[in-house]
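ZP: hey, is the zinc ion complex queued? I don't see it on the tracker
AM: it wasn't, my bad. submitting now with these inputs:
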Amino acid sequence: MEIFNGLLNLLYPENLTCIFCDEEIFDNNTFCTCENCQKNLPFIKEKVCERCGDVIKSMATFCDHCQKSKTYYDKARSVFYYKDEIRNCLKKFKFDGCKYLYKPFAKFMAKKYKEESFDCDVITYVPIHETRLKMRGYNQAELLAKELAKILNLPFVENAIIKTKKTLAQADLNYKQRQSNLLNVFKVVDKNAFKNKNVLIVDDIFTTGATIGSCAGEIKKANANKVFALTLAHTIIEE
Ligand SMILES: [Zn+2]
Ligand SMILES: [Zn+2]
């Protein structure tokens, strides 16, 4: 698979076509995205909840959910809404072996990191269970986090947190089930990795924040200072 992807990259150099629509790109474009897609991609530009990054239409600082309940992360942000081209492209990235997409995706995330004035000491990622890792060959969140750390010149923390149990797909569960599905599934195995640090957790999709919250809780237990989260896409919550 590694060799095959290498060959694909040779045949289709990543800078020549748009990752979203396959149009040829003529200018030197670091996001590998054509002008038209740059304009029309579903970037999150609206006012969002200070904490979880859900769009809010009122003047409130926090969304209803964050006003009522505590989250372990201090602030979560995403680059895009999880829809249209972003959904398609993320599916290719996760399930169709289009591993190379981590590079342009991480560039979008680096831009967001700067816009949001995140100030982190280390970057880590939401782990997947080892049997899933063997099946897929890579953890998409890990690839994004590693590339993001490289772009931002920040230390990348790997293998410090592991997923100890296989869980059901969060998307198939309701809110309560999601919380219990994730109970005690993450474990920090490197006790000093996060001590007194501001930590950024990277993942591909933010759905209800239950996964990130569960990870953040463990990282805080390992004496982290603040825990932030950055994801490529954010599911649209129907009100
Ligand atoms: Zn395009
Ligand atoms: Zn919120």
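AM: back. The pocket of zinc ion (ligand 2) is lined by residues 49, 51-52, 54, 62-63, 65-66 (CB under 6 Å).
ZP: great, adding it to the tracker
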